[in-house]
Structure formats: structure tokens, C-alpha cells
Specification:
Layout (H helix, E strand, L loop, with lengths): L2 H4 L1 H18 L1 H9 L1 E2 L2 E2 H15 L6 H4 L5 H29 L6 H15 L6 H8 L4 H29 L6 H30 L1 H37 L1 H28 L4 H10 L5 H12 L4 H26 L12
Antiparallel strand pairs: 1-2
Helix pairs in contact: 2-3, 2-11, 3-11, 4-10, 4-11, 6-7, 6-9, 6-12, 6-13, 7-14, 7-15, 9-10, 9-13, 10-11, 10-14, 11-15, 12-13, 12-15, 14-15
């Protein structure tokens, strides 16, 4: 395990603190960053997200998606959790907590903004940080990459209509074309560029060079982009986070419930499906963690940098890392008791 993986919690904490300090000590910095946008797309966030997602897409062997058809059970379980159960359960939790439980505590207009952010956050499974969670849990990384590729393609196809539908159910009408534009920029573009550049580099440089020279560089760039994104996000939202801890707590409650709920569903679905421990790891963790990068980007495009929707997605980042590390430990503890050793399948 490299130094980044070993001290992941420390690096994330440092970036969050750095972002909060920058936002507090240099008030004009947040305003300057918020003005750097084209067609409602934040340029700094878009650049960081491109390198984060491209560095993953360029390493995916898309032909393995066809190979997954030979053993479809893990992918079918994961896709059902990610695209049938998770979006609707996250929307239901958001509506339940903010429109009913927290209704006496915050104005309705403010609540709708938080609900929007939570819905966007729950709409897509993770494609970046989940690589780390599966690695730390000693799961099947090959299967994880196949799931990431499939989820990325599904995301391009249905994220926009799903988002428009669920936001509409929560009485938050938004133009679907704006959501589709965001997905095209943040997911479609790096996926296409990754696919084309992978084929080009493999043809010109060969598989050995790609694996030993190019992939390690991309891995480092992805980590730098992730940490830079965290600094930017907490610089932009630092003032609100520091000044309104009660709101942060309210947003964190349904998020925490959702994390543990999805993990339990994935874990026991893997047990019922008699998956090996290695295959159960990505099935349990992919749908549990969120594609916060895209959720944040879409929230910025739809509602603006200073909105409650963006704040909700940023709080998702704030609590996701410590909760996912707890779930990784729970997953690893279950390994010795897992009833389906991989070699027997």
C-alpha cells in the first residue's frame, strides 16, 4: 500500500482544513473562484474533475464488459442496487427528513435546496474513490473496473432523465437539458477521450509501456486532482460550513443513514447471491459511496456555487471518507467468516 492509500484519511483531512482556512483567511478567493465559469460550468472544478475521471476511464478495458456477461451475477446485483434501489431510497430519505422531520427547523425553500443536493448525490455510484475502498478491502479490482465502466455508460444514458424525474417528484423542477449538458461535460467527454487515447497509446507504445509508464503517472495525477478538488470545494463552501454547523448536522443525518443502508443491502445481497468475498467487496461498496464529483458539478450548474444543493453535496464529501473507512473495516472483518471462498466458485 502506497503512502497515499496508507494515510488517505490524513490527506483528506489536511485538504479539508486547508480549504476551510483559505476560505476564511482570504474571503475574496471564494468569490473569485465562483466567477471562473463558462456556460454555468465552474472552470477550476471542471479541470480537476476531468483529470480525476479521465485517469480512471483511460485505464478501463471496455472489452471486459463483454466478458462480464459470462459471470453476470455480481454486475446484475450491483446494477440493481445502484440504479433501482439507491436513487429512490436516497430521494425518499431526503424528502422524509427535510420535508417532515426537519420541517419545523428550517424554511421550506431552504429545505428544497438541500433535498435537491441529496438527490443528485444519490443518483450515481462512485467511480473514483471506490477504487481506493476496494483496494483497502482487498476486493476484486478487475470486477470493480468493469462495474465502473458499466456505471459510467449507464450514467451518460439515464442520469439526466432520472435526475429530472426525481427532482420533479420532490417539487424541484429543473431543465433536463442542463443536467444532460453537465453529464456530457463531466462524464461523457473524459470517457470518450479516455477510450480514444487508450487505444491510440496501446497501438503506438504497447501494453508494457502503458502499464509501467503511463498508468502510474495517471494514478498520481488522479490523486492530485482529487485532493485539489477537495481544497477548492471547501474553499468555496468554507464560510457556510463554519458558520452553520447545525445545518451541516441536519444534512449529515440522512446521508449517514443512506451510507449504512446501502452497505447492508449490498452486503446481504452478496451473501444471498453466494458471491465470493472478493466479488462482494465492490458490490457492497460501489453503491454505498457516491459519485460526489458529478453531483457537485451538476448542482453548481443547476443551482449555483452558493446554493444549499451544492452545500449538501459537499457535506457528502465531508462525511463519506470517515464512514467509508469504517465500512471498509467492517468488510475486512467479515472476510474470515465469508461462506463462499472464491476458488470454489
Amino acid at each position: 500500500m502506497g503512502i497515499f492509500e496508507k494515510y488517505l484519511t490524513l490527506w483528506v483531512a489536511v485538504c479539508i482544513i486547508a480549504g476551510l482556512l483559505l476560505g476564511a483567511l482570504i474571503p475574496g478567493l471564494s468569490e473569485l473562484l465562483s466567477q471562473l465559469e463558462i456556460f454555468y460550468v465552474s472552470i477550476p472544478i471542471a479541470i480537476c474533475l476531468f483529470f480525476m475521471i479521465y485517469s480512471i476511464m483511460v485505464q478501463i478495458e471496455f472489452r471486459k464488459i463483454l466478458d462480464a456477461a459470462k459471470t453476470p451475477k455480481p454486475v446484475l446485483i450491483s446494477s440493481t442496487i445502484n440504479w433501482v434501489i439507491k436513487p429512490f431510497s436516497k430521494a425518499a430519505l431526503a424528502v422524509f427528513f427535510f420535508y417532515i422531520i426537519f420541517a419545523p427547523l428550517i424554511p421550506y425553500e431552504e429545505a428544497t435546496s438541500y433535498v435537491a443536493g441529496l438527490i443528485l448525490l444519490g443518483l450515481a455510484p462512485c467511480t473514483a474513490m471506490v477504487l481506493m475502498w476496494v483496494h483497502l478491502s482487498k476486493g476484486n479490482q478487475g470486477l470493480n473496473l468493469v462495474m465502473i465502466a458499466i456505471d459510467s455508460i449507464i450514467m451518460i444514458a439515464i442520469y439526466a432523465p432520472f435526475a429530472a424525474f426525481l427532482l420533479g417528484l420532490a417539487y424541484i423542477p429543473v431543465p433536463m437539458e442542463v443536467i444532460a449538458f453537465s453529464i456530457g461535460i463531466y462524464i461523457g467527454f473524459p470517457l470518450i477521450v479516455g477510450y480514444i487515447s487508450r487505444r491510440t497509446l496501446l497501438n503506438k507504445k504497447g501494453d508494457q509501456w502503458f502499464k509501467t509508464s503511463f498508468s502510474p503517472v495517471m494514478s498520481k495525477i488522479s490523486k492530485i486532482a482529487l485532493l485539489t478538488t477537495l481544497v477548492l470545494l471547501f474553499t468555496l463552501q468554507g464560510e457556510v460550513i463554519l458558520n452553520e454547523p447545525f445545518i451541516i448536522l441536519l444534512i449529515a443525518i440522512p446521508l449517514t443513514v443512506q451510507f449504512f443502508l446501502m452497505f447492508i443491502i449490498g452486503f446481504y445481497a452478496s451473501k444471498l447471491g453466494k458471491l465470493s468475498y472478493e466479488d462482494a467487496v465492490p458490490v457492497s461498496l460501489v453503491g454505498t459511496s457516491n459519485h460526489f464529483e458529478v453531483a457537485i458539478a451538476v448542482a453548481i450548474t443547476l443551482f449555483g456555487l452558493g446554493s444549499g444543493a451544492v452545500l449538501a453535496t459537499v457535506v457528502g464529501v465531508l462525511i463519506e471518507v470517515p464512514i467509508m473507512l469504517v465500512l471498509v473495516k467492517l468488510m475486512k472483518r467479515s472476510k474470515d467468516k465469508w461462506s463462499a471462498p472464491r476458488e470454489n466458485q
